[in-house]
Amino acid sequence: MRVDDVAAPKIEQEEDVILRVTATAICGSDLHIYNGFFPQLKPLVMGHEFMGIVEEVGRGVTKLAKGDRVVVPFPIACGSCFFCQHDLPGHCEHSNPEKYGPEGGLMKDKGGGLFGYTDLYGGYSGGQAQYVRVPYANFGPRKISSELADDQVLFLTDIFPTGYSAVDWAGIKGGETVAVFGCGPVGLMAMKSAWLRGAARVIGVDLQNYRLEMARRSARAETFNLAEEDAVEAIRELTDGRGADVCIDAVGMEADRTLLDRVSNVIHAQMGSIKALELSISAVRRGGVVSVVGVYGLPYDNFPLGQIFDKGIALFFGQAPVQKHIDALIKHVEQGDIQLDDIITHRLPLAEAPHGYAIFNKKEDNCVKVVLQP
Predict the structure, then answer these.
(1) What are the φ and ψ backbone dihedral angles of 23, each rounded to 5 degrees?
(2) What pLDDT score was predicted for residue 39?
(3) Are 24 and 150 found together in one domain?
(4) Which cofactor names does the annotation list (predicted)?
């Protein structure tokens, strides 16, 4: 990871805008590229969590004007295709024409385009930059009130809608026990969203004490450290032996791995681990729901299909449909129903992005969330 001077973005399509970035962030998903789980062979401007001021508009842009302050959802979506019309912008049929397809997988038949997320997802330059081109600007970007600071709204681009989607998929109506595996930024937003939707009990599980402390302080969660106790049994004890109504995997394939896990990966041509998913499946009650917003990229051996069948678990996977929820979530922020910026631990100039990636990746300096300022 390095900081370079690159050519300024230009209007390429009539619905493009050029945005001057005022705030951007490093996402846990960026680490999947950083660590080689998603391949990118040539230089790419990273970043899919960003906001800023509109500097230039294409001739087909009708909903924005120069000077508008906006947040930008991370899926690049046209707004008019079958999937966009069915509130599935991450599966847009038009934004990733070279790699798009119905099959799904790591190297072919991907979904719609994403900002700064490898050539597999369209090769779009991302927002960890001073300026960025935003396609389909009539559908994606949302105007933001000048009364709200960047820090208060930046996470509407990804991690808040992602955490909220995990809760929404589970159909939480109020009174449930929700356990979240992974107390990183997305996990914290899932916990906050669970309270927003009326959960009676929220539990956070992680291996890092500083992240568990953040879950207690920022998300008012009860917490368990997997390195120190059997979190699955602890969750069952809190729920009369049943397990949580909803479990959320907010970790994905970069869960901590044992030596045996690494050997198994080599044997089965796998990358990463499904440990967080396995724990979620064990900790959820029979007839419960497991929502997976941690990223997975490859097939995995020993997927616990029999356990899922026997317990009658409903599983939900995928990228958040940000455009579906963002307007309602903006209102929650405006009304003070939820605070987003209390998870920020590091604010750095864009020039220090490599340092931000390093400490976030290595879990150094109690780093939970890095915001970069161009």
Answers:
(1) -160, 140
(2) 86
(3) yes
(4) Zn(2+)
